[in-house]
Design brief:
This protein is of the alpha+beta class. The protein has three helices and three strands. The mean pLDDT is 77.
């Protein structure tokens, strides 16, 4: 069931699906992050890769980063895993 609300065809909006052979999802655990680090900082470090999720472990009272985080990226087949790492 596709919507044609406002004259747009929802099925044409998304284009071709991503070939699962070309895209890989990877998780990176991060350590030794500075106290002022946040999720936006981690997204910027990812250097325009497709960031699925970014998390920073922070102190509940102060909001300061505890030094650890995690990022989940979608990498294309032609991306160099070691360079991204």
């Amino acid at each position: 069931m596709a919507s044609t609300f406002a004259g747009h065809d929802a099925l044409k909006f998304y284009g071709e699906p991503i070939d699962p052979e070309r895209a890989v999802v990877v998780d990176f655990d991060l350590a030794d992050l500075p106290e002022d680090c946040n999720e936006d900082t981690i997204r910027k470090i990812a250097d325009a890769k497709h960031v699925i999720k970014a998390e920073v472990l922070s102190d509940n009272l102060t909001g300061a980063c505890k030094g650890f985080g995690r990022i989940k990226l979608r990498m294309n087949k032609d991306d160099d895993f070691e360079k991204v790492k």
